[in-house]
Structure prediction request, 162 residues.
Amino acid sequence: MELDIKFIVLTHGHIDHTGVLKEVKEATGAEVAIHGDDVEHLQDRLVAVTFGLSYSTPPPPDRLLKGGESLDIGDLHFEVLHTPGHTPGGICLLGEGVVFSGDTLFNYGVGRTDLPGGNYSQLMNSLQTRLMTLPDNTIVYPGHGAATTISAERKGNPFLSG
Ligand SMILES: [Zn+2]
Ligand SMILES: [Zn+2]
Prediction:
Protein backbone atom coordinates (compact mmCIF):
# COMPACT_ATOMS: atom_id res chain seq x y z
CA MET A 1 0.00 0.00 0.00
CA GLU A 2 1.31 3.40 -0.88
CA LEU A 3 0.83 5.94 1.86
CA ASP A 4 0.80 9.65 1.36
CA ILE A 5 1.59 11.23 4.72
CA LYS A 6 -0.11 14.59 4.94
CA PHE A 7 0.46 15.82 8.49
CA ILE A 8 2.83 15.26 11.36
CA VAL A 9 0.73 16.55 14.24
CA LEU A 10 2.77 17.13 17.39
CA THR A 11 0.76 16.75 20.60
CA HIS A 12 3.37 19.00 22.21
CA GLY A 13 6.93 20.11 21.73
CA HIS A 14 8.83 17.85 24.15
CA ILE A 15 11.91 16.20 22.76
CA ASP A 16 10.70 12.66 23.49
CA HIS A 17 7.92 13.33 20.95
CA THR A 18 9.88 15.41 18.46
CA GLY A 19 13.42 13.99 18.57
CA VAL A 20 13.23 12.41 15.11
CA LEU A 21 11.02 15.08 13.60
CA LYS A 22 13.69 16.19 11.16
CA GLU A 23 14.18 12.65 9.84
CA VAL A 24 10.43 11.90 9.66
CA LYS A 25 9.71 15.15 7.84
CA GLU A 26 12.51 14.53 5.37
CA ALA A 27 11.26 11.01 4.71
CA THR A 28 7.59 11.97 4.27
CA GLY A 29 7.52 15.60 3.13
CA ALA A 30 4.53 15.98 5.47
CA GLU A 31 3.38 19.26 6.97
CA VAL A 32 4.41 19.70 10.61
CA ALA A 33 1.64 21.08 12.83
CA ILE A 34 2.00 22.14 16.47
CA HIS A 35 0.22 24.51 18.83
CA GLY A 36 1.73 27.99 18.73
CA ASP A 37 2.40 27.98 22.48
CA ASP A 38 4.69 24.94 22.19
CA VAL A 39 6.89 26.06 19.31
CA GLU A 40 9.58 27.20 21.72
CA HIS A 41 9.82 23.64 23.09
CA LEU A 42 10.97 22.45 19.69
CA GLN A 43 14.28 24.08 20.46
CA ASP A 44 14.27 23.41 24.19
CA ARG A 45 17.59 21.86 25.10
CA LEU A 46 16.81 21.87 28.82
CA VAL A 47 14.14 19.22 28.45
CA ALA A 48 16.43 17.23 26.15
CA VAL A 49 19.06 17.23 28.86
CA THR A 50 16.45 16.30 31.49
CA PHE A 51 15.54 13.20 29.48
CA GLY A 52 19.16 12.56 28.53
CA LEU A 53 18.25 12.46 24.85
CA SER A 54 20.19 13.52 21.80
CA TYR A 55 18.38 14.82 18.75
CA SER A 56 18.72 16.64 15.44
CA THR A 57 17.55 20.24 15.49
CA PRO A 58 13.88 20.04 14.45
CA PRO A 59 12.61 21.89 11.38
CA PRO A 60 10.31 24.87 11.98
CA PRO A 61 6.59 24.01 11.92
CA ASP A 62 4.53 24.55 8.75
CA ARG A 63 1.26 25.14 10.52
CA LEU A 64 0.49 26.64 13.92
CA LEU A 65 -2.57 25.29 15.71
CA LYS A 66 -4.78 27.11 18.22
CA GLY A 67 -7.30 24.42 19.06
CA GLY A 68 -10.67 23.93 17.40
CA GLU A 69 -9.26 23.23 13.93
CA SER A 70 -10.52 20.37 11.81
CA LEU A 71 -7.89 18.26 10.11
CA ASP A 72 -9.14 16.18 7.19
CA ILE A 73 -6.84 13.35 6.26
CA GLY A 74 -8.39 11.36 3.43
CA ASP A 75 -11.69 10.05 4.81
CA LEU A 76 -10.62 10.65 8.38
CA HIS A 77 -11.67 13.72 10.28
CA PHE A 78 -9.98 14.97 13.42
CA GLU A 79 -10.48 17.93 15.67
CA VAL A 80 -7.69 19.67 17.58
CA LEU A 81 -8.39 20.04 21.32
CA HIS A 82 -6.17 22.50 23.15
CA THR A 83 -5.31 20.82 26.46
CA PRO A 84 -2.69 22.93 28.28
CA GLY A 85 -1.18 21.77 31.56
CA HIS A 86 1.63 19.34 30.71
CA THR A 87 2.86 22.12 28.42
CA PRO A 88 1.16 25.42 27.49
CA GLY A 89 0.52 24.30 23.92
CA GLY A 90 -0.41 20.68 24.49
CA ILE A 91 -3.15 19.32 22.23
CA CYS A 92 -5.17 16.16 21.84
CA LEU A 93 -6.41 14.95 18.49
CA LEU A 94 -10.01 13.71 18.50
CA GLY A 95 -11.83 11.85 15.74
CA GLU A 96 -13.14 8.53 14.47
CA GLY A 97 -13.96 7.40 18.01
CA VAL A 98 -10.43 7.82 19.26
CA VAL A 99 -8.42 10.51 20.96
CA PHE A 100 -4.65 10.79 20.77
CA SER A 101 -3.97 12.26 24.18
CA GLY A 102 -0.25 13.03 24.05
CA ASP A 103 1.10 13.50 27.56
CA THR A 104 -2.18 14.94 28.88
CA LEU A 105 -3.87 11.64 29.79
CA PHE A 106 -2.32 8.20 30.29
CA ASN A 107 -3.72 4.79 31.21
CA TYR A 108 -4.48 5.48 34.91
CA GLY A 109 -2.19 8.48 34.91
CA VAL A 110 -1.82 12.08 33.81
CA GLY A 111 1.07 14.11 32.44
CA ARG A 112 3.72 15.55 34.72
CA THR A 113 3.50 19.27 35.33
CA ASP A 114 6.95 19.93 36.81
CA LEU A 115 8.68 20.72 33.51
CA PRO A 116 8.93 24.32 32.19
CA GLY A 117 5.46 25.68 31.37
CA GLY A 118 3.66 22.90 33.23
CA ASN A 119 0.65 23.80 35.37
CA TYR A 120 -1.28 21.24 37.43
CA SER A 121 -4.57 23.13 37.79
CA GLN A 122 -4.54 23.87 34.06
CA LEU A 123 -3.97 20.16 33.36
CA MET A 124 -6.89 19.18 35.60
CA ASN A 125 -9.08 21.76 33.90
CA SER A 126 -8.12 20.43 30.46
CA LEU A 127 -8.86 16.87 31.54
CA GLN A 128 -12.25 17.74 33.03
CA THR A 129 -13.47 20.09 30.31
CA ARG A 130 -11.97 18.53 27.15
CA LEU A 131 -11.49 14.81 27.78
CA MET A 132 -13.85 13.67 30.54
CA THR A 133 -16.68 15.22 28.51
CA LEU A 134 -16.07 12.74 25.65
CA PRO A 135 -18.29 9.65 25.15
CA ASP A 136 -17.48 6.66 27.43
CA ASN A 137 -16.41 4.40 24.57
CA THR A 138 -13.85 6.82 23.13
CA ILE A 139 -10.54 4.96 22.81
CA VAL A 140 -7.55 6.82 24.22
CA TYR A 141 -4.10 6.44 22.66
CA PRO A 142 -1.67 8.16 25.05
CA GLY A 143 1.78 9.45 24.21
CA HIS A 144 3.25 6.76 26.51
CA GLY A 145 1.97 3.36 27.56
CA ALA A 146 -1.10 1.29 26.79
CA ALA A 147 -4.36 2.39 25.20
CA THR A 148 -7.38 2.92 27.41
CA THR A 149 -10.91 4.35 27.18
CA ILE A 150 -12.56 7.47 28.56
CA SER A 151 -14.88 5.26 30.59
CA ALA A 152 -12.02 3.30 32.21
CA GLU A 153 -10.23 6.54 33.09
CA ARG A 154 -13.39 8.15 34.45
CA LYS A 155 -13.83 5.18 36.79
CA GLY A 156 -10.29 4.20 37.68
CA ASN A 157 -7.81 7.01 37.10
CA PRO A 158 -6.72 8.10 40.60
CA PHE A 159 -6.12 11.67 39.41
CA LEU A 160 -9.66 11.96 38.08
CA SER A 161 -11.87 9.89 40.33
CA GLY A 162 -10.22 10.75 43.65
ZN1 LIG B 1 5.86 15.65 27.32
ZN1 LIG C 1 6.29 12.35 26.57
Observations:
- The chain has one domain: 7-161.
- The domain at 7-161 is CATH 3.60.15.10 (Metallo-beta-lactamase; Chain A).
- The first helix runs from residue 15 to 18.
- The helical segments are 15-18, 21-28, 45-51, 120-131, 150-156, 158-161.
